[in-house]
From TrEMBL, chains A, B:
Location of the Cytochrome b5 heme-binding domain: 82-161
Keyword Cell wall biogenesis/degradation carried by entry: no
Protein's name according to its UniProt entry: sulfite oxidase
Gene Ontology CC: mitochondrial intermembrane space
EC number(s) stated in the UniProt entry for this protein: 1.8.3.1
Pfam families registered for this protein in UniProt: Cyt-b5, Mo-co_dimer, Oxidored_molyb
SUPFAM superfamilies linked: Cytochrome b5-like heme/steroid binding domain, E set domains, Oxidoreductase molybdopterin-binding domain
Major location category of this protein: mitochondrion
Key words, A-Z: Heme, Iron, Metal-binding, Mitochondrion, Molybdenum, Oxidoreductase
Length: 558, 558
């Protein structure tokens, strides 16, 4: 799919991944905010424009392959008068004190002075400090403009030696995760093996309605399987009927194709906020375990009908099970959904083979995955190997012993997983993506521009998002960007929103004053989010959907 | 429908209605609880048995007509040695100090000493103090047993004069509400004209799964129309097609009948709790503006298809409007639902003509009403006159300018009703029906038996109810009685529940100690209730679904 040039770019990102991840692990979240806040709030006008643009750049950002190709084809400036600088040196230049250097191709650039005037805000450009720009430029299509190239050219201070330009992936034949694919260095890694990672909040929201595949959150339970699309076969079994085997070509040729924009969210999204109440067992997800994609595939109901399932039958086969091809020594991943969802002509359950117009990336289930819109991500089984229409639900570990909700008073000594239903539809949720935690609010501004996402399970669209900066004494109704063409009862994709929230009287203009902004969404059933995490705390840390709160600090700095 | 004997009984209730309503208005809520608590909690064993029975007596209580007939036919004891007592005298005997008297037929009974041993609890029997027993006995089928008759016979102290036995209804030819039907005196009247009333919480929960028609909450927007079932015609219009007119007989003969158990809830249920935060415009409903019925009727989708609507068409007709025959000088009641709900074969929308096996009572839409399961009561239009499948939604006042939710910061000066969607599906709710507010908890008991209901819109069944007696520090998972035969995605009827909640350490055995119990439910989408009313406050006081809290007092009395 990628040209050899682009493969080089991807290899490059493997090295910068190390650098940026190290940075992130130590202080990146802090840098995102404290350092980035001035850029974010000192110039309200441009910030507003950027926010507005953020809602419409999705298509450009999602173009993906085309964007990569043109980045790759742009010739790098060669300046033979400039010194050679080693990658290791660049990696030492990540702060204002040392100077902030970045790499593009074989060029090394000092962006220290440029940061304050970066149109996308200082926090964005700081993600690349000490490493490569390309992985980030691919996400922000506006860097394709000549203007960006010209600005960068003026900041060049050196050239990487050839051996630092291409960095080969470390081989790991003995590691079950050794054949996992490359990932984007911007992702915040919650677990490396199996790989679980999420985009930073501001990157997620800047990407707009459709999340680029590279930064779509990754939630793998097992190593990523290597599947040959030529020999791939999907087994479809309707209990009591003959079994059907379909090749990838069969799937694509025998059934009509559908495109569905759908948000997928991990049950553990925002778990870190629940962990702050009391420890839970689970990965410490921030608010980025949610992403939105234009999926292309065939309808599950069509495939079931082809395999002999009677769609009009309120019969004994009440579940549709999915088995993944990802497995370890003891088990494969799997799960099931109720048959009413599986066969609902308005339920839009897909067997997807494209993600934002590209073949599924390996991390997202290549060559075929299930996409169950409106339902917890855990049921959208990747690397789909088998479908079974059955009387009972899946007996898989992740259906029976995980992804269920319990009372805050149930602990690991008392839990009985059989007493709760497997999570299917998720509750209403929202989060503030920008500003990020501990960002600075300019003492010279009266309002704070706030942006975020809101979404609810079951296709229930978002009807309102309320934002407060004074603990709920006053609420500001956000401006919504609902998913186009998706009515309130079939809104599979999130609603992005923005609000201009007044700085509370007590904090306005007061250097060092602390404040907190919070949001809550209401969905088409007028369900809304609970205030606090403690009453919804549960031992697995799933279903975190209380108000999202972001602490901010007023700063006098220009 | 009723025998002439039963009509007399109903007339009787008109007089006792006055008496009991006066009582209720002054102190009945208090009596329900403070006086009733000892009966409720001093004998845990029998109380538990009663609670268990409460979950299964629905069928018997719902028998209704049969029960009335046998009450009416039972000969009253005539004891010529006893004195004549006037109704006005009886009405003066409602307290322990004066003695507590009640009437049945022409008999007057002193139940003062009996109250403490009343199997149903003291609060129940106190509702009839100073008035007639019959309206209450009709609700509790166990009074049909000879034992109840024998006990009462032993308490007789006098005989009503003939002129006090039958009280004629006051005629009111000039009153638009003058032809409204008789109502059950147990109902708490929030508005007399139009009539809006709810059952007391403990009566509601004691009635069990199916609420008897007489105490089903009544929510009328206009006078109750008088409709002749012989000349009644339902007009069905599919925009662009010919109009169809159906008689009641047509409806019953042309289409298959369906029975659906569905809970209907007013958008304003529990509004009084929201009013406690800040005034709203609306009736002060307690927690009883919700009831459950076995509805019988024909499917809306079948009638629409008969009128020429293409059920498989994702066409331009996206709404189904309903117009009621209830009207005043300026308008009729009406509303609409989205077409996807109207035609969904699993949506179970009925044109109902029977309520718990009886023809619809006049207050509930005789002869035909809509029942939209899982949706706010406002769309289940009563006295149905017209159905229109249309491109746009109903322009009726109650669809456009009412029954919508807004942010707590929107007031009557700033509200723009066009910015919010009409409420359709309701959010998850639960409430504690017993004990009632300010009830006494025995200082000699370690636990409190708690009972209530939980329900959610959209057919989302209840998966858990949590109850706390210590402000949420510990939660007790209630035992659920989900609606039989209704899966979690098609649970139109409520889930009744009960829990045995430990008295908190600090209050246990301490005379006068105050405590508060609270409940919250979780539905099949794992949506749960917000903690507080303030963040969901809205100017119309709809959608109150925060945790339900009940204050209690520990008492040393036996």
């Amino acid at each position: 799919m990628l040209s050899s040039c682009c493969r080089s770019a991807l290899r490059l990102s493997a090295s910068s991944q190390l650098a940026v991840q190290t940075l992130r692990a130590s202080s990146c979240r802090h840098l995102d905010t404290a350092a980035g806040a001035r850029g974010s709030y000192s110039s309200k006008g441009s910030r507003r424009a950027a926010a507005a643009a953020g809602l419409v750049i999705a298509a450009a950002a999602a173009a993906g392959a085309a964007g990569q190709a043109s980045i790759c084809e742009a010739p790098q400036k060669q300046d033979s008068d400039l010194p050679t600088i080693r990658r290791a040196d660049v990696q030492q230049h990540k702060t204002k004190e040392t100077g902030i250097w970045v790499i593009r191709g074989d060029g090394v650039y000092d962006i220290t002075e440029f940061i304050a005037s970066h149109p996308g805000g200082a926090s964005k450009i700081m993600m690349a400090a000490g490493g490569n720009l390309e992985p980030f430029w691919r996400l922000y299509a506006q860097h394709e403009k000549q203007e960006a190239h010209d600005i960068l050219a003026g900041l060049r201070i050196g050239t990487l030696p050839a051996e630092d330009v291409v960095v080969h992936k470390v081989s790991a034949a003995d590691d079950p995760f050794g054949k996992d694919p490359e990932r984007h260095p911007a992702l915040i890694v919650n677990s490396a093996k199996p790989y679980n990672a999420e985009p930073p909040p501001d990157l997620l929201i800047d990407a707009g309605f459709t999340t680029p595949n590279e930064i779509h959150y990754k939630r793998n339970h097992l190593p990523v399987p290597e599947i040959d699309p030529e020999t791939y076969r999907l087994q479809v079994e309707v209990e009591g009927k003959q079994c059907v085997r379909l090749s990838l070509e069969d799937l694509k040729m025998k059934f009509p194709h559908y495109r569905v924009a759908a948000t997928i969210q991990c049950a553990g999204n925002r778990r870190e906020e629940m962990m702050a109440v009391k420890p839970v067992r689970g990965l410490s997800w921030g608010l980025g375990a949610i992403s939105t994609t234009e999926w292309t595939g065939v309808r599950l109901r069509d495939v079931l009908a082809y395999a002999g399932f009677d769609l009009n039958e309120d019969g004994p086969l009440q579940h549709v099970q999915f088995e993944g091809l990802d497995r370890d020594m003891t088990q494969a991943y799997g799960g099931s959904i109720p048959v009413h969802k599986a066969v609902d002509p308005h339920g839009d359950v897909l067997l997807a083979f494209e993600m934002n117009g590209e073949p599924l990336p390996r991390d997202h289930g290549f060559p075929v995955r299930v996409v169950v819109p409106g339902v917890v991500g855990a049921r959208s089984v990747k690397w789909l190997g088998k479908i079974i229409a059955s009387t009972g639900e899946s007996q898989n570990h992740w259906q029976q012993k995980d992804y269920k909700g319990f009372s805050p008073s149930v602990d690991w000594d008392t839990v009985d997983f059989s007493t709760a239903p497997a999570i299917q539809e998720l509750p209403v949720v929202s989060a503030i993506c920008a500003p990020t935690a501990h960002a600075l609010v300019s003492a010279h501004e009266d309002t704070i521009p706030v942006r975020g996402y809101a979404w609810s399970g079951g296709g229930r669209g978002i009807v309102r998002v309320d934002v407060t900066a004074d603990g709920g004494a006053t609420w500001h109704t956000a401006q919504l960007a609902p998913p186009e063409g998706q009515p309130l009862h079939r809104a599979w994709a999130w609603t992005l929103w923005e609000a201009e929230v007044p700085v509370p009287e007590g904090a306005r203009g007061k250097e060092g004053a602390k404040l907190e902004i919070a949001c809550k969404a209401t969905d088409a059933s007028y369900n809304t989010q609970p205030e606090l995490a403690a009453p919804i705390w549960n031992l697995r840390g799933v279903l975190t959907n209380h108000w999202h709160r972001v602490p901010l600090v007023v700063s006098d700095e220009e």
